[in-house]
Backbone:
């Protein structure tokens, strides 16, 4: 078992973002980057699936996007920094993402953060 595998197993909800995952998620992350434009955010909100198709997302990626399933988005190649642009469209914060990643409610996640301060 290599260090990357140990690291992945030690921190639930995290996935190694290596070259393979970067290639797998290239179109997804490119789409999320497009949300820097307010016009693109409006277009996405109006027709999410059509917007995903325009970026050639896989069926699995489209389902993860429309379900706002952060763990699944990470598994299909999403980079958390780009995914924050997607989830921000729906008013989700980084704490919301962290709660999903760790399988906690937002209140449980916040309490854990505060206990670490």
Residues:
């Amino acid at each position: 078992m290599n260090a990357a595998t140990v690291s992945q197993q030690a921190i639930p909800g995290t996935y190694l973002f290596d070259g393979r995952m970067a290639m797998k998620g290239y179109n997804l992350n490119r789409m999320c980057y497009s949300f820097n434009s307010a016009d693109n955010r409006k277009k996405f909100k109006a027709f999410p699936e059509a917007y995903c198709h325009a970026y050639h997302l896989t069926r699995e990626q489209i389902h993860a996007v429309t379900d706002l399933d952060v763990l699944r988005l990470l598994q299909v190649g999403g980079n958390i920094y780009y995914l924050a642009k997607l989830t921000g469209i729906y008013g989700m914060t980084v704490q919301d993402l962290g709660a999903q990643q760790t399988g906690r409610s937002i209140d449980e996640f916040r309490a854990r953060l505060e206990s670490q301060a």
